[in-house]
Amino acid sequence: MQDRLDHRRQCPPSDLVSIGGTYYILYRSRSHPTVVEVHQLAARIRILDEGPLVASHPHLEGRRR
Fold it and tell me: 3-state SS of the chain: helix, strand, coil percent to 5?
């Protein structure tokens, strides 16, 4: 099992969530602001919206990538 860091982020209408200074886009069917759950793994960022996975991105090192 991989170590992971779980936290919550407020999701603005732009559907861009900042994690460690890097912005990740969400692919959701609704556009109103909500709180998403973030699972930060060593190699991937997983973002869930009230349960379902809405985004999975490679973890990018550095800021503003």
Answer: 0, 55, 45
Question: Does the residue 65 lie in any domain?
Answer: no
The residues pairing with 35 across neighbouring beta strands, listed in sequence order, are 10
User: Is 14 inside a domain boundary?
Assistant: yes
63 in a structural domain: no
- 11 class by beta-carbon count within 10 Å (0-12 exposed, 13-18 middle, 19+ buried): buried
- Structure pTM? 0.72
The dihedral of CA 34, 59, 53, 51: what is its sign? Answer: negative
Q: How far apart are CA 45 and CA 35, in angstroms?
A: 16
Alpha helices of 1-65 — where are they, by DSSP H? none
**49 pLDDT above the threshold of 70:** yes
